[in-house]
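quick one
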Amino acid sequence: MRDIDDRGLLYITENSNSFEYQAFARALGTQPVGIRDVGGEHLRLDPNVVFDVDLRATSSLRKLKGLLARRGTGCRIFMVDPKARIAVSNAESLGADAILEPRCGAEAIHQAIRQHHGIVHAVDVTRSIDAGISALDGGFRSLVRDAVFDTEGMESASGQIIDAIDSAGVDHWMATVRGYHVGTFQHCMLVTATASSFARRLGMRRGDVIKVTAAALVHDIGKSAVPVEILDKNGPLTPEEAQTMRSHPIIGHDYLARRSRIAADALRSVRSHHEYLDGSGYPDGLRGDEIDDITRLVTISDIYAALVERRAYKAPKRPEDAIAVLEALAGAGKLEPALVRAFARITLHKQAA
Ligand SMILES: [Fe+2]
Ligand SMILES: [Fe+2]
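structure w/ fe (ii) ion:
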């Protein structure tokens, strides 16, 4: 998860030696970097940047134009006298997110950064959730009509979700989903966020994180063939209803195998996300090594998300209680202990952060 703090704050000044710049840098919680010393490596992590330089100097301007050509989501703040028209227009041409007076104070800078990220996050989060919901909705409808599944649409939604969770944090993303969506769609989106951020924080390559995210997004697509009365039933299912419910992994897998271009391992997780390592799961009663890594990851995320979900008939569990359930399942030989430990570490550390 990238948040405002771990992207860092870069304070670019005319020179790094003056007492005044150093004092202000201390108030900002960073160090000054002179404009002559600044290079691409300073901007690699897409930091928030405060520019305290003379924007009328052509050499500085040229240098900054080169350095700032690529736009990330870091906030760009320029400390410029609002009456200096040329400097203001140069700041704007460099992509200023905020223009503040030179003696504005550190708190005004931090406030501008928080505001910038609040706006960026809100837009990213909402857009990515909309993209995910529309990919899901399209997929659920296509299955019922046995129409072609929009694989590219789902992968693009997955990419947007990964980026939004990266910038806004998984807690905020999941809270937004809970606020606007219910039932099966809420469940699928929460599994997606959980699996995606888990994969990301395990250090997987982006291609694999997309695969995991996409697999999680569609893991329950077979539920579109299950009647709503069963899906949203307010209480325990009868044996017949449970039988119908348990058909969803095969229905989803068979549909996607025929009508989508989803990667084979993501497809396997659609079929096998209710399997347990001890062979007690369904639909195939797979054991141990027969269950691959992506599926293991989706299974843990699926169970966790179901436990922390808000349903009409049950209160959501707290993350630590949901993890205790996962640990018990690992202890019983159903889930991989090392993976559950990693999940607990990542999830609870995140809660404490
Ligand atoms: Fe499922
Ligand atoms: Fe599920």
